Amino acid sequence: MKNKKINLFILTIAFLLVLYFALKDNFKDVLKQLSKVNLWIFVFAILIYVTSLAFKSLSLHMFIKNHKKDYPWKKTYELTLIGQFLNGITPFQSGGQPFQVYLLKKQGIRISDSTSAMIKDFISFQIALILMGVIALVSNKLFGVMAKQSYLNWLIGLGFIINVIVLLFLFLITSTKKTSLKIINKLLDAVFRLKIVKKTSITKERIMSGLSNFYESGIELRKDKLKLFLAITYNVINLVLLYLIPFIIFKSIGCDSVTPFASVVVTAFIMLIGNFIPIPGATGGIEYSFICFFGSFISSKSILSSAMLLWRFVTYFLGMVIGYMVLVFKKEVNKK
Fold it and tell me: Considering only CA atoms, which of 247, 253, 238 is closest in space to residue 265?
C-alpha cells in the first residue's frame, strides 16, 4: 500500500508539472485550440487506440490458449485493459503482468503456465518495439523525416541502445541458461553487498526462479516459430496504430503539418525513450519528447501543447480509466 501511495503521489506531481509547463505561457491559446477540436476525428483517435489494444491482446491470447484452449478472447482483452491501468501507475510499467498472472490463476490457469504466456508475449512485444525503432531510424536517415538536432539524436540513440540491451539480455537468458545464471548470480552478489535489499536469500531465489521461467519460455517460443511470427505481427500492428494517433490528433485540431508516415516515425522515437523513464507512465519525459520531436514540424506552441494533452489523454489516461473500471467490476478480484 505504501508503494502504491508513493507511485500515485509521484504520478500526480509529475502530471501537475506537465500541465504547468504546457499551459504557463499560452493558457488562453491552448484552451482556444481545445475548444475547436473536431469531436468526430477525436473519437476516431479513441477508436484507433481501442483497436490497437485489441491487436495487443491477440498476442497474449494466443499464448494463453496454449494452456487453456477454451479461454475466451474477451477475457484476454480485459486483462490487457487492466494491464494498462496497473502499468500506468507503476515505474517501468512493472505492475501489470504480476496482477495478470494472479487473475489468470483465479480463472483456473496455473501460475507457471500464465507466467510462461506473459514472458512469451513480453519477448514478442520487445522484438516488435525494436523492429519499429529500426524502421524509424532507417526511414529518418533516408528521408530526413525530422529536423537534425543533436540532443534529440542523442536521446533517440540512448533509448534505442537501452531497448536493444534489454532484448539482448532476454536472448542471453533464453539461449545460454548456465552462463546467464552465473552472470546474474555474480551481479546479485555485488548488489547484495551494498545491503540495500532485505531478505537477500529469498530475493535471490525468486529472481533465479524467474530467470529459469524465462529460459524455458524462450526455448518453447523458438521452437514454435509460426506463433512467434504471429505474435510479433500482432504487436507491430498494435504499435503502428498507436503511432498513428498523433497524426489523427493533429488533424482533429485542424493541423495538417504532420503526415501519417512522420507520425509513425516520430512516435516510435518517443516510445523508445519513454520505455526507460522510471516514473509511472514515463510522465514528464514522454510529454517533453512529444513537444520537442513534433516541434520539428510545428512552430505554434499552443498547437503542440494542445495536441500533446489530447494525445496523452487518449493513449494514457483514458486507458487507465477504462482499465480501472474493468478491474473494479472483475468478480475474481478482491476489491480491497
Answer: 247
Integer distance in angstroms from the first to the last C-alpha of the chain? Answer: 11
CB 7 within 8 A of CB 85: no
Q: CA 288, CA 305: separation in Å to the nearest integer?
A: 10
Q: Please state, in angstroms and as integers, the Cα–Cα distance from residue 116 to each residue in 27, 72, 212, 248, following that order.
A: 48, 18, 10, 36
C-alpha cell at 89: 501507475
d(Cα 306, Cα 319) in Å, to the nearest integer?
19
**In angstroms, rounded to a whole number, what is the distance separating the alpha carbons of residues 76 and 166?**
26
Q: Which residue has the cell 494466443?
A: 62
Query: How does pLDDT run across 266-285, given as a tens digit for each residue?
Result: 999 888 877 666 555 556 67
d(CA 236, CA 149): 27
Map out the domains of the chain as residue ranges. 2-328
* C-alpha to C-alpha distance for 35 and 49, rounded to whole angstroms: 22
Residue with cell 477525436: 42
Look up the pTM and report it: 0.83
Give the least confident one: 93-107, 197-211, 231-245.
197-211
